[in-house]
Structure formats: C-alpha cells, structure tokens
Amino acid sequence: MPTNRRPRPAEERAALEARRLQAAELFAQGHTQAEVAHELGVSRQSAHVWHTRFEQGGVEALRSRGPTGPDPRLSAAQLARIEQALLAGAMANGFHTDLWTLERITVVITQLTGVRYHPGHVWSILRHRLGWTLQRPERRASERDEEAITRWVQQEWPRIKKGPPQKRPGSSSSTNRPSR
Q: CA angle, corner 151, sides to 148 and 152, nearest 5?
C-alpha cells in the first residue's frame, strides 16, 4: 500500500540529485535543453540552469551540496543523552509525577546540554530528530475495580439492554386507552 509520507530531506536530496545526473547524461549524449526538460518532466528553465552548470563544471556541478541551513544546535551525542533521560522517566529527572510535558522536556534539555529551546520547538525535536510520537495517558480512576466492572457487564448490562418488561400490549391510538 503506498504511503503518503513526505520523503525525508536526505531522500529528497538524493532523488533530485539523481534527476540532475540523468540530465547530465542526456546533455552528454547531445540532447537539447527542451528535450531534457520534456524527458525528465521539469521546466525548461530548470533544464537551462542544469545545462549551464553542466557546461561550467561537468557532472560534479550537478551533485547535491548537502543539507542547507545552519547546523543543529544539539549534536547526535547530546540527543542520545536526552533520549536516555526521557526514557528513564520524569520522576528520575526530579519531577513529582511521571508525566512528560513539553515544558518539562525543555527543562531537561537545558539541564543536560545548556541549550535553551522554546517548548513549542521541543516537539519538532522529539518528532523529527528522535522519531517520537504523541502518547496520551489513559484516563482511569485509581479506585477502579476491574472485578466489579466485569460483574456489572456480565450481569447487569444484559438486563438493562433488554429494557423494561412488557406486560400488556400497547395501543397505536393516542386517544384510546389500551384494551385490557
């Protein structure tokens, strides 16, 4: 079954690079920019830019330059330390309950690494860099009695589901009383 997930940046870069290298092969074989654009399903402008780069620097000029943007503020080693702290639980990190919130995780990240993040950005780190998903605790009373619930479902619920007993036939008339 096909998935609708967006490709990861590294996968996307690799796919785009493969398309540019395929264009380089076509240019080397003597194809025109318009033919390359049509063949690869790209705009003529893209084919023109690729052709110019190919002529100036060869195939190497069409290779990916790697990820763009600034380097992450947390290294892989720091992320591993944070993940271990989160797996140990909130109580092990000095909180009174074992429930993680973004604010608490922000505090742990700051304590372990000295790097400060807004709690809203912490979710991006958890989701995209650590691969974590949202987990919500089940809401159950601490006084919950499983045996009483099972007994009620087996004995009382079938009786309630049947409804009240029908001792006499009903009448379809709204003005006449039912006959006895």
A: 85
